[in-house]
Amino acid sequence: MASSDPEKLMSKADKLTKLTLTRWSADWRSAAGLYEQAANAFRLAKEYEKAKLAFEKASKAQEMLSSPWDAAKHMESAGAVAKELGNWNEVADFYRRASNLYIECGRSQPASDALAKGARALEETVPDEAVQLYTEACSILEEDGKEQMAFDLYRAAATIYIKLEKYPDAATILLRLGLAADNCKAVNSQCKAYLGAIIVYLYAQDFKQAEKCYNDCSQIDAFLRSDQNRFASKLLSAYTEGDIEEIKRLVQSSTVSNLDHMIIRLARKLPTGDLSALKAYSGKEQEEPLDEDDLT
After folding, report:
1. Read out DSSP for 131-174?
2. How far apart are CA 18 and CA 15, in angstroms?
3. Topology in the membrane (predicted)?
């Protein structure tokens, strides 16, 4: 009967992959099975460092067998084990490698999912890296024309940016979500994303950027005719008039209640900052016209 001692399994597998005078070709198929058994046994015993190495070797063996799908699965397992160890750099690395292997198989959905798993594992400890992984996961889906599947990933990235108080980045991600929604005719998601971006700018006390965002988004017919647009118009007017009570009344509306939780939380805290400066601003042009001298 085969030994179930993971150390022995590893040793046997290693021997099968090394060429000797009597073994002229490596037996990757047998080795792959042994590495996998060892990895699972180590993980069960909570010997995570050894399990991680075994999964890496199992992945390599599957690559040598031209089986990137199985290699990717083992890489994901290595990522999960690295999370148990708190090796955050390795977590990102393993899930990226898994993602690349899925792309080799021509499978964008699992490739994106692998990055999203890595992102979720890193959200609490390395949020900047998590956002990066979410964004890469979105790009993979978009390149394959599967924008609709990226919506939740964009929202997850925006939520992290809001937690990090990186409001311009959060708004930018929401605008990207709006564009993705536009590409697949998901009008409701699109309009909610645009209103979300406007609210984020207002929360960050950047009225000028909120107004610019509103004007830019209003160039898009779907948004121009939406409830979200009418709401944004009323909200910006209340800001321009410095009408705090009206702002507080508006943010309790059902239009806000239908937005994502992270945006609802920000909206219900409006207005932030001092509105008195807005009155002075609202009478002026947004930008001074350029002199001809400025162009030379």
Report:
1. HHHHHHHHHHHHHTT-GGGGHHHHHHHHHHHHHTT-HHHHHHHH
2. 5
3. Peripheral membrane protein
User: Could you tell me how many residues make up the chain?
Assistant: 296
Q: Please report where in the chains the tokens 């792309």 appear, as a residue.
A: 103
Q: What are phi and psi of 25, to 5 degrees?
A: -135, 145
- In tens, the pLDDT along 132-175 reads 999 999 999 999 999 999 999 999 999 999 999 999 999 999 99
Q: How far apart are CA 77 and CA 71, in angstroms?
A: 10
Q: How confident is the model over 91-109, as pLDDT tens digits?
A: 999 999 999 999 999 999 9
Cβ atoms of 130 and 119 within 8 Å: the answer is yes
CA–CA distance, 53 with 35 (Å, rounded to integer): 9
pLDDT 10s digits, 249-271: 999 999 999 999 999 999 999 99
In this structure, which amino acid lies at residue 54?
A: A
- For the record, the structure tokens of 114 come out as 């692998």
Whether 167 and 161 have beta carbons less than 8 Å apart is answered as yes
Query: For residues 58 and 43, is the Cβ–Cβ distance under 8 A?
Result: no
Cα gap 37→132, rounded to integer Å: 33
CA atoms within 13 A of residue 106's CA, in its CB half-sphere: 0
CA distance 204 to 173: 15
- Determine contact, residues 101/115, Cβ cutoff 8 Å: no
pLDDT for residue 21: 76
Instruction: Give CA–CA dist 77/40, Å, rounded.
Output: 10
CA 97 to chain centre: 17
Q: Scanning the structure block, which residue is given the tokens 């075994």? A: 54
| CATH topology assigned to domain 31-144 | 1.25.40
Look up residue 278 and give its two tokens: 């807005």
Q: What is the CA radius of gyration of the chain?
A: 26
For residue 145, which phi and psi values (nearest 5 degrees)? 70, 25
On the question of a common fold for 31-144 and 169-282, the answer reads yes
- What residues does each domain of the chain span? 31-144, 169-282
